[in-house]
Design brief:
Strand content: under 5%
Number of helices: 9
Largest sheet: 2 strands, antiparallel
Shape: globular
Structural class: mainly alpha
Distance between the termini: 23 Å
Helix content: 40-55%
Radius of gyration: 16 Å
Number of domains: 1
Number of strands: 2
Length: 205
């Protein structure tokens, strides 16, 4: 995976593989149009945590959606693909509030090696609200604004709120549905595969 790349267009290409691409892309405007900083945001506040650095959040989101859609195909899961896409897209969007860049972002001078970068830090929001709650709120606002997925709102919201898997890990509820377990599992795969690279690099310093 390219770690110095904006993944928004790659995520949109995944949406174009879905049957309900029109509705999916319309409600996804809550991120692609309203929150354009998503494309370059970090997935963490510390270099040793998964998907830290410029573009990390978008890369993680792309990995999770791709993993979920692949698992659906391989395991022949009876889960709507658009629900998979939207749960994956929105699950970590609250990290836009959990982290902030210490200096303005620029494509020109973006760090080429995010492991050595000290550009990102945590915010008070991470302690007081946390990205999981914010992600759920943003999903609900998107449904209210764009008037799609009203009947499926709670199924996708449950997956978002439970994606850390346990209350002790920050989720207000534990996974209960196939969609929720799929999101939690694929989120863990993406995070841990990125973690192992980062811990090796930190250890070698």
């Amino acid at each position: 995976m390219n770690k110095d790349k904006n993944y928004i267009e790659d995520i949109k290409l995944l949406a174009h593989t879905l049957t309900n691409v029109g509705a999916v892309l319309r409600i996804s405007d809550a991120i692609f149009y309203d929150l354009t900083e998503f494309g370059y945001w970090s997935g963490a506040a510390k270099p040793e945590h998964h998907h830290y650095g410029d573009y990390g959040l978008g890369r993680h989101t792309y990995e999770v959606i791709n993993l979920m859609l692949t698992c659906k195909s391989v395991l022949q899961l009876n889960i709507p693909s658009d629900h998979i896409f939207l749960a994956g897209l929105f699950h970590d969007i609250g990290k836009l509030w959990d982290y902030k860049r210490k200096s303005p972002f620029s494509e020109k001078d973006s760090p080429k090696n995010p492991f050595n970068s000290n550009a990102w830090e945590g915010t008070l929001h991470k302690r007081e609200i946390h990205h999981i709650s914010r992600s759920g709120l943003l999903w609900s606002k998107a449904v209210d604004k764009y008037r799609f997925y009203q009947d499926d709102h709670d199924d996708i919201l449950h997956a978002i709120l439970s994606h850390h898997g346990q209350r002790e890990w920050g989720s207000p509820v534990a996974p209960h549905t196939k969609l929720a377990w799929l999101l939690h599992t694929c989120d863990q795969i993406s995070a841990r595969m990125d973690d192992c690279d980062r811990h090796d690099i930190v250890t070698e310093r």
